[in-house]
Description:
By secondary structure, the protein is α/β, with parallel strands linked by helices. Helix content is about 35%, strand content about 25%. It has 2 domains: about 5-65 and about 370-430, Roll (Urease, subunit C, domain 1), CATH 2.30.40.10; about 80-365, Alpha-Beta Barrel (TIM Barrel), CATH 3.20.20. It has an 8-stranded parallel beta sheet with strand order 5-6-7-8-9-10-11-12. A 7-stranded mixed beta sheet has the order 3-2-1-4-13-14-15. The chain is globular, with a radius of gyration of 21 Å.
Amino acid sequence: MNLNSGGGIIAAVVNPTAEGRLEYFDRAYLLWDGNGVITYFQSEPPPLEQMAHHEILLRENRVVLPGLIDLHTHLPQYEFAGIGTDELLPWLERYTYPQEARFCDDKLAEKASAAFFQSCLKNGTTTVVAYLAPFLPAAHTAFAAAEKANLRAYLGLTLMDRNVPATLVTSVAQAERNLVELLQHYHGKGKLQLVVTPRFAMSCSPDLLSLCGEFSRAHNLFLQTHISENPTEIAETLRLFPNCKSYAAVYDSHGCLHERTLLGHGIHLSEEEIALIRERAAVIVHCPLSNTFLGSGIMPYQRYRAQGLRLGLGSDVAAGYALSMLFEARQMVEVSKLLSRFSGKDERANMEQAIFQATLGNALALERPDLGSFALGKRADLIVIDDSLCDPLLGMARNAYHTLPERLSRIFYRGHPDMVREALVDGKVVFAAGS
C-alpha cells in the first residue's frame, strides 16, 4: 500500500470520545495524508477529488478501532506469561529475576524482543509502555526491535540496586551513565521514548530513587514503577524507608511522584496516599489480569475515578497472562462487578468505559491527545478486526445480533488475537495476519 499521497479505510468504526463514550459508525470514511495525519472522518463519503490521491482499504465487513495502548508491561517476562501461582514476592524470586538474568545473552534478548513487539501488534497494541531487562545491551536490542516493528514504544531499563540477585544489580553511577546513553541514542527518535524505570521501592536504595526522580524531571521523561500491589510488599517497603509514612510518600520524598509518573497497581492505597497522588497528578495504572492471577486484590477503578485520580490500564505481562488490551479491558469490567458485589458499593465499570480506557483514556494518561481516537489532525493508528472469527460457524450473515454495539460486545467478550487482521501506525500497515 503506497501512502506517499495518503491513504484511507472504509469500514464500520468505533470511535471513543473525550466524554468517555463511544460513537458507532456502521460505515465510515477515514482518510489520512502521507504523514499519517487524519484529514477526514465522517459517515458520509468525502468529495471524489479528496479521495483521488488516496489508496483506500475497503473493509466493509470489519470493525475498526483506534490502536490499543498498553501503559504497563514487561518485555522480558513475556516468555513465562501464565506460569506460576505464588503471590508477588515469591513469584518474582522464582520466575521474574531468573528470567531477566537470561537477557545477558544477546541472542536471546534479540529473539525475545522481536517476538514481544510483533505479539503486541498481533494483539492490536500500537503503543506500548514496557519495562526492559536491567542490562544495557539488551536495552539497545529492545529499542532497535521496537523501531523495526514501527510501533510507538516507551521503554525503560529496569533499575535495581538492592534486594535482588547480584546479577541484576546496577549501581547508582552506572544507572546514570546508562540513562544518559539511552537518552542520547533513542529518546524522541522516531516513535521511541525513554522511560526512567526504578522497579519498585523495595529494590531501590534512596540514592537510586533520588537519581530516578532527578533524571526524569531534568529531562521531562516519564517514570514508571510499582506501588501498593501486595500487603507484604507494602510492609517491607515501609520497613526499608522508616522515615516515610506511606508507600506513596517514599516516591514523593525522592522526587519520583510527578505528573509523568506511571504507578502500576495501586490496589491498597490509603486516603492520604490517594490525596498525595492526586495532588502530584501522577497516573495509577490498573492491571486487573495480573492482580487476579497473583491474588493481589482488586483496584477500585470507579472509586479512584470519582476521586479525581488520573488512571490508565496495562497488561502487566507476565503476571498478566496476555498481551491483549481487549482481554485486559474485559477483566477490568468483570473484576469491578465482583468488587461492587462484595464492597456493598456500586463499583461497576462497563464495556464502553473499558474500551475508552484502553484507547483514548490511555492516550491522555500518556499525554498523547493525538492518539486513541479519530479526528482531524490525529495520528492514523488503527486496528482492523474480523468479528466473524468469534465463531465462524455462526456466520455473520445469519447472526441475529448484528448491530455495531452488539458486534463490539461480541468482540469484547468472545474475542481472541486472531481476530485482529491488520494494525496500522501513522497510516502504514505494520501487521497483517497471514503475511
